[in-house]
Specification:
Layout: H1 3-14, H2 18-45, E1 47-52, E2 55-61, H3 63-95, H4 113-154, H5 161-195, H6 199-205, H7 211-222, H8 226-234, H9 237-245, H10 251-270
Antiparallel strand pairs: 1-2
Helix pairs in contact: 1-10, 2-3, 2-10, 3-4, 3-6, 3-10, 4-5, 4-7, 6-7
Length: about 280
């Protein structure tokens, strides 16, 4: 898979559409933050807030405040997949020579939003579990190591090199195993993220496909292409640095460019997989 051709195709698909592409991404980002933010703000009004040297901290909240905080989390979980679906569809249309408008940012709310939400939630759960399970096992080993260290030190102070070596011999391997599981959790999580990155594109092209089958199809498309996708994303690192230097202004152009590149990546691989 030629990533230079993919990026070239992405740029070509955005020609004459940069304004609406920036507008669509900007509106999606703002609304994704504002909708949950409204409920979070209401929850904060039922809370006790204290200013500290580290910033504003919530010290206590009422039952009503907790309800609104939960609603904010649910709202974020609902709107994020719907806006991501809309962005994916817009840039997929652009890659196929079709037109779109900023108003298409609400397409996710119009086209079977329940299924799109389920796709997004299942995608999140699979990725989260991929990270959580190894990390949980690592935490168990770390807890055992802490328990052994406490038992050893409770018998007396570490007075000699032999005592220290005994402690390391009893605890060190467990800490190493725990660290290995934590690292594995990160790696597996990244791999899972790549595996299910294309779920919204599959959902767009296959509206009648079941939620589980959508995830399976994304996994099939990404089979043998995860490294290609990683390298493609890594090529944007320079632009990300530039965007950070410009106080985030550069992301207005970079976000559509990345979205268009992912759409081109999907189109270049899907015909070999989807029957």
């Amino acid at each position: 898979m030629n990533r230079l051709l993919i990026k070239k195709q992405a740029k070509a698909s955005l020609k004459g559409k940069w304004g609406r592409s920036i507008g669509l991404c900007l509106v999606a980002a703002i609304l994704t933050g504002i909708i949950p933010g409204i409920f979070y703000g209401i929850g904060t009004s039922f809370s006790t807030v204290k200013q500290t040297s580290e910033g504003t901290q919530i010290t206590s909240t009422t039952a009503m405040g907790i309800v609104f905080f939960i609603i904010a989390i649910i709202a974020l979980a609902v709107v994020s997949p719907l806006f991501q679906y809309a962005q994916s569809k817009a840039f997929l249309k652009a890659n196929r020579g079709e037109d779109f408008t900023v108003g298409n940012v609400f397409d996710g709310f119009k086209e079977m939003p329940g299924k799109t939400f389920c796709v997004g939630i299942l995608q999140y759960l699979v990725i989260w579990l991929s990270c959580f399970i190894p990390s949980l096992i690592g935490g168990i080993f770390l807890g055992i190591a802490g328990g052994r260290a406490k038992d050893i030190t409770s018998m007396g102070s570490i007075l000699s090199t032999d005592d220290a070596l005994y402690l390391i011999g009893r605890v060190g391997p467990l800490i190493m195993i725990a660290f290995a599981f934590f690292v594995a959790g990160v790696i597996i999580g990244i791999i899972a993220t790549f595996m299910y990155k294309l779920v919204y594109y599959v959902r767009i092209d296959n509206p009648d496909m079941s939620v589980v089958q959508i995830l399976k199809t994304s996994r099939k498309i990404m089979h043998g292409r995860k490294i290609d996708y990683f390298v493609l994303q890594f090529t944007f690192i320079g632009w990300i640095i530039v965007s950070c230097i410009t106080c985030g202004i550069g992301f207005l152009w970079l976000a559509p460019y990345i979205e268009a590149s992912v759409a081109a990546f999907y189109d270049s691989a899907k015909d070999q997989i989807i029957e």
